[in-house]
Amino acid sequence: MTRTPDLIDALVDCATPVRRLRPPLIRAMFWLGFAGLVLALVAMGHGLRTDLTVRLYQPGFAITTAAALVSGILSAVAAFVISLPARSRWWLMLPTPTLAVWISTIGYGCLTDWVGLGPDGFRIAEELRCLALLVLTSVPLAIALTVMLRYAAMLRAGAVAAMGGLAIAAITAAALSLFHDHDATALILLWNLGTTMLIVGIASLFGRRVFWTASQLLTSQPGVRTR
Amino acid sequence: MSPGPRRRRLSLTLVASSADAALVGSGQRNTNRTRDWGGLMARAQDGDRLAYRALLEDMTPYLRTLAARCFKEPSDTEDAVQDVLLTVHAIRHTFDPRRPFGPWLVAIANRRIIDRLRRQTRARSHELKMSAEHETFSSDAANFHSDELSADSAALHAAIAALPPDQRQAIGLLKLKEMSLKEAALASGRSVSALKVATHRAIKSLRKLLRQV
Fold this sequence. Notes:
A: 227 residues; elongated; B: 213 residues; 64% helix; 0% strand
């Protein structure tokens, strides 16, 4: 076992100047800016849905999309704040009101649409395109968030990963509403709630390991390896 | 007037503002040796190794006190302290000098201590304490020799001796000496698959032989 004074010597030897993190709100804004850029690129590549202007005037669609977007923004802010030591756990509650609005509106909308459309609401080709769009949007956001929050591996990895996953899922769902033509299918419920739960679940299960790997890959401290 | 011996304070001294940090950072220290840990960390972030050493050395006894409340063994306490020091080092860039140092450090220490306690609990749930009677060795001297056991053992050894040489060798290496397949292959110069086949045949033969006894 290394003696503590020896460890202190080793730590002092490799104590290079470090750049302090910017305040969490500003870092969250950077990430949200990146998310906006990704969405803009996808919009340029894929194009917005043809009936977007009509749909935006429908209160149900506007409320669902806005609630998803705001849930994403608030979850991202919460993830950045609670990733730091000694920040209150109450920040985890920040996206709760908009999340409740979002889930209740998509749940009700889907149920009525599904009943109205019947089995025709399920179209495999459309849904596969939808899945590709989902992956294209969420993967860059997930990578950026993992890199920015890698230090959380040593603190609240699970909570940070869950909040980050929720932010990615909510923003992806909002993006799908803007890009994807057929939101009146039963699968929208699956995409929205299913992907949210999937991403949040994966993030909670593997968040610590992912953050840990990212922190080890991106932090090179010669002679000192944490844990 | 001599100030007399003073007890070194282990409590945290929190910085109210960056102005205080700058004051301490400029080298002014309290005469009662209470250091401003937030100020020291701010200087350490800028690469001041002396400040960093002072900070780590100052906070180690405090961390030890925190850890000692949760661990019985002094070695566990020391491991926990080292864990906290490593984490503080790895994420020292997350400290904001405008915020108090105490809660920052305590949050890290608590997290590390809880993680270590969880790991210990998990490890203990998989471990079984063995008493001296459970220990046994392959040499004769370490084994018990009751009549029943020695009768069984004699029959088994006789059956093993009656096996063809390649099967006897496979049983000896893999079952009696408890070598892995790779180790046995290295020791005997035979391939892993040959050893597997020989063991399989040997066990079949042993079953037959022991049934006859």
